[in-house]
Structures are given as structure tokens and as C-alpha cells.
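Exercise: predict the structure of this protein bound to IPE.
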Amino acid sequence: MTLAQLKHLAIIMDGNGRWANARGQARQDGHEMGVDPVKQVIKYCLEHSQINTLTLFAYSLENLERPKYETIYIEQLLLRALCANISQLCEKGVRLKIIGDLAGVATNVKKQILDYVDLTKANTRLQLNICFRYSGRWHIMNAMNSITKRPVTEDDIKNYINNDLGDDPDLLIRTGGELRISNFLLWNIAYTELYFLDRYWPDFSVDDLKGAIEHFNQRQRRYGKVENYVE
Ligand code: IPE
Ligand code: IPE
Ligand code: MG
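Solution:
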């Protein structure tokens, strides 16, 4: 039996808008309240040395179809959250990566974000991938475009995508109750363990994370093979 070992955790942080709606508040308040669980999850990962990569789905390319003010709000929130926490992240050895199509982001915002990324690039304790303006299909398309005209192999795509994100996630958690992937890590989750939680992201706690990890620890990861057979 291949024992489950959690090195790369990925999360679809869903349910912010519904969290706010349920309280008669603006959707933005839900996004705002979503920052604290992110901090708790990062802290947890830093306290558990086997976890070396955390990938968070913060905004999708499809989310750009939302009202402009929501898109701008999220962008500003990301910037604010990074600004407030970057020195601590850096100190703790976090390497920040922002993965997504930043082409439409205002030049000054983009520069600030990339400066933060640059600041942490030598860190090695935990790679924090923030998927922002991201889509799984976009990522695969980029991989294809980076490869020259020769026939593309599975390893070509894997190398490109894993160079951005690290090895494939071991565990993917989605909050908010939806049982779908919503164009998150399509390539990388071929053998990832999936955990869906019917709780809005702003209410996500370390106990929820522990529950997900306990569930993960009981998984048998077979990768399509059978165990203990005799030829
Ligand atoms: C997830 O929460 C965060 C983002 C997509 C930015 P949502 O904003 O999708 O919240 P719901 O799903 O509408 O409740
Ligand atoms: C997925 O959630 C994207 C993020 C959490 C950033 P969505 O809210 O966009 O997904 P759908 O629309 O419910 O599929
Ligand atoms: Mg949603």
C-alpha cells in the first residue's frame, strides 16, 4: 500500500459571496473575511514540515465575467493582503508565486505584485502558489505554446506546469459545497485526493483542515495499480 503523504495541498476557496449574502452583507465582506482562513492555513502548513507547497485558487479567468468592481476589489484585496504580510511570509521562508494571466492587470498593480514575488524567490520552506486570473485550460495552453513545433510529449507539459506549481497536489480541498473543479488545476489533479466541504470559505478553520488531512491520511493511493499481486 502506498501511504498517503501530504506534501502539496491545494484549495478551492469557495463560498465567500454566499457567506456574505447569508448575513445580508456585500459580497466584498465575504472576500475580506476570507483572508483570515488563508493566514491560518499558511500557518498550519508552516508548522507541518512535510507540506512544502500550498496552492490557493483566488480568482479564475471566468471570474473576470463578474461585475468590474468585484474584480477590482479582489485585486486590491490581494495587494493589501500581500503588502500587510509579505515581510512575515519572507521571514518564514515562504516563496510566493502568482500564477495566472496578469495581462489585464493595471501596470502599477502588476509591478507591485511581481516585486513581492521577486522578494521571496530565494525562499525554500513553503512554495505558496496563488492562482489569480487562473484557469487550468489556460495553463495547459501556455504549456503547449511554450513548446516548439516538435511533437509534444506528456513530460513536456508536465515539466512546464510543474515548473510553475511544483509536484502535483496530494490533496485538493474545495469549500462552499459545490462538487466541481471549476477550471482549477486540470493537469495536476490526475491522482490528487479530493475533499469537498459544505462550509463557506470564511468559516473554514484549522479543525476543518485537520479533518481533511485525517481523511487524506486514510487514503490508499493506488495510481491505477493493484497491490500484492503475483505474476
Ligand atoms: C470564492 O467565493 C472566491 C472567489 C471566486 C473570488 P465566491 O466569490 O465564488 O463566493 P460564492 O461561491 O459566490 O459564494
Ligand atoms: C472557483 O469558484 C474559483 C475560485 C474559488 C477562485 P467559482 O465560484 O468561480 O466556481 P463556480 O462558478 O461555482 O463553478
Ligand atoms: Mg463561488
